[in-house]
Amino acid sequence: MSEPRLSRPSIAPLRDFLRTEAAGGVVLLASTVVALVWANSPWRASHASLWSLVVGADVASLHLRMDLAHWVSEGLMTVFFLVVGLEIKREATSGHLASRRALAIPLVAAVGGMVVPAGLYLAVAGSAAPAGWGVPIATDIALAVGLVAVLGRSVPQAARAFLLGLAVIDDIGAILVIAFVYSDGVHLAWLALAAVTVVAAIVVRRAGVQAVPAYVFLGLVLWLALKSAGMHATLAGVAMGLLAPVTPKRGTRLVDAEDPKRPSAEGSVSVVEWLLHRLHPFSSFAVLPLFALASAGVEVSSATIGRAVESKVAWGVFLGLVVGKPLGVLSAAAVAGRVRPGGVAPSLGLRDLAATGHAAGIGFTVSLFVSGLAFDDPLLLRDARVAILAASLVSALAAAFVARAARSRVG
C-alpha cells in the first residue's frame, strides 16, 4: 500500500497575477473616487496640504527631502516598477513573450499603440507643450485586466493573452521613455556608481545568492545613485526586477501549479515567481491606491472643465488615448497579421483587436505618473490629468461596448 502524497502549497503565477490585477483595479478605482471627492469637498485644502508636506533630511550630498507626493511617486512607486520588471522577466522567460512567434504581433501592435498616440498628441499639442507626448502612450494593466475580468466571456482567451502581452511591452516602452526623455541632466559620477551597483547585482546573482537583504541593499544603493545622477529613481525597481534570477527558489515549499513538467515538484517556483507572489499584492493594494490618492485628486469645476476643453494639451492627451491607442494597435496588428502566416490568432477578429486597443487606452496610473514628469506648469498638469481621467473612462466604455458587440455578432 503506497503512502498518501503530501499536498504542498501552490501558486499559479499567471492566474494569480491576473486575479491580483483585477482585484487591485477595483481598489485603485475606489481610491481614485476618494481622491476626486476629497479634492472637490469642503476639505480640499487638507488634500493639498497633506501631499505637499515636506519630510526627510539632507545627508551630506544626498538630498532626501521631498514632499509626500514625491515620496509616493519616487519612493513607493519603485515597488510598482519592481513588480513591472519582475513580470517582464517572467513573461520573457516563461510567459506569453517567451518565443519569437508569440512576441511578434503584440510587439508590433504595442509599437503602433505608442507611436500613433504620441504622433497624434504632437499634431494637436506639439506647439503648446511638446514634452507631453509620452503621456498617452501608456496602458494601465490593473484597470485593463480588471475591465476584461468584468466583461467575462465577452473577451476571448486569445484577446486576454494579446492584451497582457501588449500591456507588458507598453510598460517597457514607458520605462524607456522615462529613462531617456524625462530624466534631468545626468551626473556621470553618480551614474557610474549606478552602473557598478548593477554589475555587483549581476555578480551576486551569478554566485547563486538568493538572500533578499543583499538585493534590498543593492536596490537602495541603486535608487540613491539614480536619484542623485538625475535619472528617475523608480528605474531602480525596473532594473532589480530584470536582474532577479529565474532559478528555482530555495527554502520554499511552494510549487508552481501551472508548470506542466513539475506541477508538484519542489523547485518549480523560480525566484522571480516567488517575488511576484510576495510583492504584487502590496503593489496593487497599497502602492497604486496611495499613488492614485495623491495624484488623481483633481479639482473638477466648471472653470477646470472649461479650461481643459480649450486646452491643446488636454485634447492631445485625450485623443491620443481614446483615438490613437486603438487606431495604432488595430492598424499595426492587422498589418503584422497579414504578414505572419495564420494572422494574429485564429479566434481573434478585428472587433476583438479594436476592443483590446480601446482597453489599452486606459492609461490612468502610468499616464498620471508620466504627466508629473512631463509638465512643470501646474495648470498644464491639471489639464493633462483631467484629460487622462476622462480618456480612461471613455476608453473603458468603448472597450466594453466593442467587446460585447463582437461577441453578440459571433453568437
| Beta strand count | 4
Major beta sheet summary = 2 strands, parallel
- CATH top level label: Mainly Alpha
Structural class: mainly alpha
The proportion of strand residues reads under 5%
Low-confidence stretches: 1-6
- How would you describe the shape? globular
Number of helices: 15
Brief sketch in words of this structure:
By secondary structure, the chain is mostly helical. It has helices spanning 13-39, 44-51, 68-94, 100-125, 141-151, 157-180, 188-206, 212-229, 235-243, 271-295, 302-309, 312-339, 350-360, 364-374, 378-410, and strands spanning 10-11, 54-59, 62-67, 255-256. It has one domain (10-41, 76-183, 232-410): Na+/H+ antiporter like fold.
Describe the structure.
It is a single chain. The protein is mainly α. It has a single domain, classed as Na+/H+ antiporter like domain (Na+/H+ antiporter like fold), CATH 1.20.1530.10. Helices cover 69% and strands 4% of the residues. The protein has helices spanning 13-39, 44-51, 68-94, 100-125, 141-151, 157-180, 188-206, 212-229, 235-243, 271-295, 302-309, 312-339, 350-360, 364-374, 378-410, and strands at residues 10-11, 54-59, 62-67, 255-256. The strands form two sheets. A two-stranded parallel ribbon has the order 1-4. Helix 1 (13-39) crosses helix 5 (141-151). The N and C termini lie far apart (52 Å).
